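Much of what follows relies on a compact textual record of a protein's fold. A complete example follows; check for yourself that the lines match position by position.
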Amino acid sequence: MGPPGKLRVVLEMIKFEHTLFALPFALVGMVLAAQGWPEARTVGWIVAAMVGARSAAMGWNRLVDRDVDAANPRTRQRALPAGLVTPRFVALFVAASLALLVLAAWRLNPLCLALSPLAILVLLGYSHAKRFTWLAHPLLGLALGGAPLGAWIAVRGDVAAPPLLLAGVVVCWVAGFDVLYALQDEEFDRRAGLFSIPARFGTVASLWISGALHLGALAGLAALPFVYPPGLGAIYWVGVGGCAALLAYQHAIVRPSDLSRLDAAFFTANGLLALWLFAAVAADRLA
């Protein structure tokens, strides 16, 4: 298989299309920072940074987890354990993605560039967390929580309360759905000596923890208009209501005795939530 074919395999392996989970939150931070829509150059480099960041993080995750994935019946058909692509090619892909992230940070502003090593540490570090702590889920949330904060910094070149609150929202949102997703591997994680909230606390408690994290995300969204000086109007609150409905839907279809609809909860509802919130914020700021 030539390089184009290998690249297609890697993009499928990291679910490149799921970049939409993090990108809308970056765009929310961007629109709030600009109080509207910034210049096209800034938008382009923010998108490039997000693509590079998520691609590097997912590629690294698959690379360091290849032995674990090979032992897990649910994941043993992934590209690396199945031998569809080599570790060397994936490592080169990660390096190229990181280069794109750093290039974008350099083109945005000096603070973005200065903070890029810290961002890389978080992006690559969370993949190792489940080997020593069940707090791996909020660490994954922290990796994605850098999206709105980084976009704010890209526009304004500073740090303020609104993007920090948004980062907290993303941490809670991502950690909540990652706990749900990890329910699939509860027994395997225990046998393999890996750490996760389901492996540590069990299915029922994990569902409660996930629900509490999602309530925290909604509380953060409700608080955002009060720390964002221009304020946010009715369209934003429609967006928050839609997010609440989508989170409630996830928890309604995932039961302790029935995890069969977990993929629908994870992929469909969370992708829609991110896009819905961005559309509400953009419409509110641009109206």
In short: Residues 3-286 form a domain with the Tetracycline Repressor; domain 2 fold (CATH 1.10.357.140). The longest helix spans residues 40-64. The chain has 13 helices and no strands. The two ends are 50 Å apart (CA to CA).
